[in-house]
Write a structure and sequence with these properties.
CATH class of the largest domain: Alpha Beta
Structural class: alpha/beta
Radius of gyration: 22 Å
Number of strands: 13
CATH topology of the largest domain: Rossmann fold
Largest sheet: 7 strands, mixed
CATH superfamily of the largest domain: Response regulator
Strand content: 15-25%
Helix content: 40-55%
Number of domains: 2
């Protein structure tokens, strides 16, 4: 091929490539979003940041992007109804938050690409084949792996060494919670703590579990991440304070809202980060080609005001380790 012909060929290819990219951004694409929990401060902040990052990538809501957003408020029936409703809209990609919401959406989504966020232990939960090679039409951002079960129990022991029993609020039908419990029970003997699991599905069961725990001496609570505990976080914080029980939560926001101590990820940032994968899928990438990303930054937040209210002296060494101390 002559040099001139080569240059013309390369130029034509570049123009064609630009044309395809421009066409992708000029045609309206639909993103269906199913969030299993309620509108909480970090998630709303994270959603707004998600939109901003998509905008920087060229996807502008109302111009070339249509967003269909549903908040299920921790209601299993709403999750089912919204999942069906969103699938019928034939979105180009779906973003789903929480294990129960993904469990509902996955069987009915057919080949619609799915990006998940705030999903714990997706491999053991059967959502993906592996983190590096998810396979199928699903990928995303996981927040917690199974070993966090022991980390939360250790945090309870560190902040309240006198605790000898721990009630773990969990959702028994969530596979990731079974893995968390297994890890917590494995760590319990060396910490000198007996564990009791309390399966919860709604606010009534949450309140009943905390009341039962309060009747046992030297008891603390570990709250596992789930839409049911997220929606009822205020209830949990209120009753833990009422019964003066040391309680460990999975998100910093819980400590900022009055919980004693939290160890976990930045919920809002994790939601915002999903914009990267949504953008890449809208541009033609397949979910199977995008490895599941695991959270690598964890924060320890301690509420000293709450500690004083329940008569707990927080060890100075733990305060020194904290990323955030709330006075």
């Amino acid at each position: 091929m002559r040099r001139r012909e080569f240059i013309l060929t390369i130029g034509a290819a570049a123009i064609s490539s630009c044309s395809v990219a421009a066409q992708q951004l000029s045609s309206t694409r639909t993103v269906g979003i199913l969030i299993g929990t309620s509108r909480t401060s970090p998630l709303v902040t994270g959603y707004n940041a998600f939109l901003q990052r998509l905008s920087k990538a060229g996807w502008i809501e109302g111009r070339n992007l249509r967003i269909e957003l549903r908040w299920a408020n921790g209601d299993p029936k709403l999750m089912q109804d919204y999942a069906k409703e969103l699938v019928t809209l034939t979105p180009d990609v779906m973003l789903v938050s929480s294990n129960p919401a993904l469990a509902v959406l996955r069987p009915i989504a057919a080949d619609v690409p799915i990006v998940f966020v705030h999903v714990a232990d997706p491999v053991s939960s059967g959502f993906v084949s592996s983190l590096s090679h998810p396979g199928g039409n699903i990928t995303g951002f996981t927040n917690f792996e199974a070993s966090m079960g022991s980390k939360w129990l250790e945090t309870l022991h560190d902040i309240a060494p006198s605790v000898t029993q721990a009630t773990i609020l969990m959702h028994p039908e969530t596979a990731a919670h079974v893995a968390f419990i297994r890890e917590a029970q494995s760590a319990a003997p060396k910490l000198g703590v007996d564990t009791v699991t309390a399966g919860v599905h709604d606010g009534r069961e949450v309140e009943s579990a905390i009341t039962a725990a309060s009747m046992r001496p030297n008891t603390g609570i570990v709250v596992l991440p789930h839409s049911v505990t997220s929606v009822n976080s205020s209830l949990i914080i209120e009753h833990a304070l009422k019964y003066k029980m040391p309680t460990v939560y999975p998100f910093r926001q819980n400590a900022e809202d009055g919980g004693l101590v939290a160890y976990g990820v930045d919920a809002g940032e994790l939601l915002a980060s999903s914009a990267e994968y949504v953008d890449r899928i809208l541009r033609g990438k397949k979910p199977a080609e995008l490895p599941v990303q695991a959270a690598n930054k964890f924060e320890l937040a301690i509420n000293l005001k709450t500690a004083r209210a329940i008569g707990l002296a927080v060890p100075a060494t733990l305060v020194a380790r904290a990323d955030e101390v709330i006075e």
